[in-house]
Amino acid sequence: MKIYDERLHPEVVDCLRNGGVGVIRTDTLYGLVASVLSKKAVERVYKLRHRDSRKACIVLIADESHLPAAPPFYAEQVIRHSWPGPVSIILPINDAVPEWIHRGTGGLAMRVPADAELRELLLKTGPLIAPSANHEGQPPAETISEAQAYFGDEVDFYVNSGPVMHHSPSKLLRPLADGTIERLR
Hints:
alpha/beta
């Protein structure tokens, strides 16, 4: 387990591309991150977090081109007004999205972060699942030392970006076909 001072460190990028799991600061909180392309890494995140296996994780993407399918017309305006930013939007999925990512929910919460460096990382790694860095039901880690208290050397790396000043999770919205928007948090 290594501690880095920058998310774009080549070893961080390589680790994530090769199925590693780490802790980085997202645009909202510290997150436990792994590539959506690695079933083994995704399952490892669930085990480390003690996360309910029926709950899907938020997926961070670099831009709309990383969406698994074109968003439905009723979600387009919400996306335009929310991304990049701390707003996760639940979109319907298609058969191309593996079950280990959507967990049978029929939708997937996705977010384009406001942080330009994080988007650059996502361009290099591809989409990442990014639940908060904590055990399910516990307070999210606001520092690397708090994340280490949760995960110790069970993750491959930590990126120390200082303490979280604004520790709210992203807004979670579900656009509906009738034009309304359901706010889930």
